[in-house]
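ok new one. same drill as before - structure tokens go in, u give me an amino acid for every spot. 478 of them this time. try not to just spam alanines like last time pls lmao
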């Protein structure tokens, strides 16, 4: 099935057998005695070196072998004469599928800025950095499915088009087929959504959780892994308008079980990357330490592999929101008025507060629980004190919130009260409320932002660089 990939070829013994290579040229170098072509097919960060003799091919053909051009090479796999690789290919036949005009091709063998690469997102997968990121992203996604399969969770496909707003934040993209120039109106003059495709208002989902809960009330343990959309106008290095979320939902899990699962799960997938993405992680670690060389000593980061191993090998710190507020109130930046936002019980923690707790105080991942009910979603289970809910957020160094979750309110009356309190029309989620009427059960779940995980594992600093084609305000080009 298809040609051998460069990853496989690089592992073979150089016994002069005939091989065929297909890939894109990274560099071409001509010396007096030979022409060297470094070829990459994306199967690995490493290139394979192919060597031709001067005069073996016409100058005309060689002119079309440029950085970015695509080749088919047939030749002998031999021991490499040079250092840096064990094997190389002695070219016998060379075919150019497509050349890339060096005057026009934007990727040249030099370091390009990440900002520039975002403008050519259609070509950036061909760089070492993005090749590494995309392979790691794949491995993490694979590990997610493997983990849940091993733990006997069922993958539930929740809808992408919904009529509800699970998080209640109103940050939804509308889905409609109405003609925006000729909107149908009701007698009162409002837009008549009865005439829209679904006969009602519809939007892209902000979370698969509500439908996930329906699955858990039948299959006990489910997870979703799908695209999620938020029309929040946040131009930060941590937010995307379209991101992927993994949402497990478990019947008979209380908050403590939920925390145990979240911690075990993220450690498992990070460990999987450490074991299966060694070359790509080593490349990214090296890239980061090169970048760090220009920074003052105290701003340099911990080497990537060390950082990942530390997270995998150490228990996360668990504390309540109330305890966290106490720590913040006693902290130096609070006393010296260095925090931009005020600290006090009831506030929604801002990222400077989260970063203080994780990066300065505990120096490790933190799970915060039992947040004030006012700042959390309607579906979270009320604590006995009536003031806090059984929420949990997992906070990571350099990332902030990576997971948000909770035990769910399983009592019908209490849930209905919250629904009214936050102003949701119960009619619109009658099916969700039904689960609390028919065989309700204690249950819990959480959502892991997949790109925030990839951001952490790759050590990149902008979430727009860990998804192939990022969507953010004013950007949906590719
Ligand atoms: O905390 P959030 O909003 O929680 C939920 O959506 C729940 N329904 C999850 C659940 O309990 N099943 O989002 C969960 C996670 C966040 O912790 C964050 O990692 C990520 O999703 N996230 C984003 N990632 C990228 N861009 C955005 N705009 C994000 N918003 C949330
Ligand atoms: Mg959250």
């Amino acid at each position: 099935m298809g040609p051998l990939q460069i990853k496989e070829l690089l592992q073979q013994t150089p016994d002069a057998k005939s091989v065929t290579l297909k890939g894109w040229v990274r560099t071409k170098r001509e010396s007096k005695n030979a022409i060297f072509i470094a070829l990459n097919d994306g199967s690995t960060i490493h290139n394979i070196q192919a060597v031709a003799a001067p005069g073996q091919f016409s100058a005309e053909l060689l002119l079309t072998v440029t950085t970015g051009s695509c080749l088919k090479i047939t030749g002998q796999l031999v021991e490499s004469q040079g250092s840096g690789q064990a094997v190389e290919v002695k070219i016998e036949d060379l075919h150019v599928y497509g050349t890339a005009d060096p005057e026009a091709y934007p990727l040249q063998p030099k370091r390009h800025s990440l900002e520039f690469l975002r403008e050519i997102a259609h070509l950036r997968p061909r760089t070492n950095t993005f090749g590494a990121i995309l392979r790691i992203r794949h491995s993490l996604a694979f590990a997610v499915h493997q983990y849940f399969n091993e733990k006997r969770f069922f993958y539930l496909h929740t809808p992408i088009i919904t009529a509800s707003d699970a998080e209640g934040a109103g940050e939804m993209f509308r889905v409609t087929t109405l003609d925006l120039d000729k909107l149908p109106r009701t007698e009162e003059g409002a837009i008549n959504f009865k005439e829209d495709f679904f006969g009602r208002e519809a939007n892209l989902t902000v979370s698969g959780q509500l439908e996930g809960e329906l699955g858990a009330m039948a299959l006990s343990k489910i997870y979703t892994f799908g695209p999620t959309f938020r029309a929040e106008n946040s131009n930060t290095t941590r937010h995307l308008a379209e991101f992927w979320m993994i949402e497990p939902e478990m019947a008979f899990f209380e908050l403590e079980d939920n925390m145990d699962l979240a911690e075990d799960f993220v450690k498992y997938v990070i460990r999987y990357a450490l074991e299966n993405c060694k070359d790509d992680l080593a490349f990214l670690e090296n890239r980061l330490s090169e970048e760090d060389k220009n920074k003052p000593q105290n701003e340099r980061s911990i080497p990537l592999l060390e950082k990942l191993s530390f997270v995998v090998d150490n228990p996360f710190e668990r504390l309540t929101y109330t305890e966290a507020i106490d720590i913040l109130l006693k902290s130096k930046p609070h006393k010296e008025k260095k925090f931009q936002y005020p600290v006090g019980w009831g506030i929604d923690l801002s990222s400077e507060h989260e970063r203080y707790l994780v990066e300065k105080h505990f120096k490790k991942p933190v799970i915060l629980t039992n947040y004030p009910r006012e700042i959390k979603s309607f579906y979270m289970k009320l604590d006995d004190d009536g003031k806090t809910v059984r929420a949990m957020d997992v906070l990571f160094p350099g990332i902030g919130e990576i997971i948000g979750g909770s035990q769910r309110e399983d009592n019908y009356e209490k849930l209905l009260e919250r629904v009214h309190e936050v102003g949701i029309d119960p009619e619109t989620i009658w099916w969700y409320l039904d689960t609390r009427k028919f065989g309700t059960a204690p249950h819990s779940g959480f959502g892991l932002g997949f790109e925030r995980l990839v951001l952490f594992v790759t050590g990149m600093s902008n979430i727009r660089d860990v998804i192939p084609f990022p969507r953010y305000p004013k950007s949906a080009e590719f």
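The two ends are 30 Å apart (CA to CA). and btw Residues 401, 404 surround magnesium ion (ligand 2) (CB under 6 Å).
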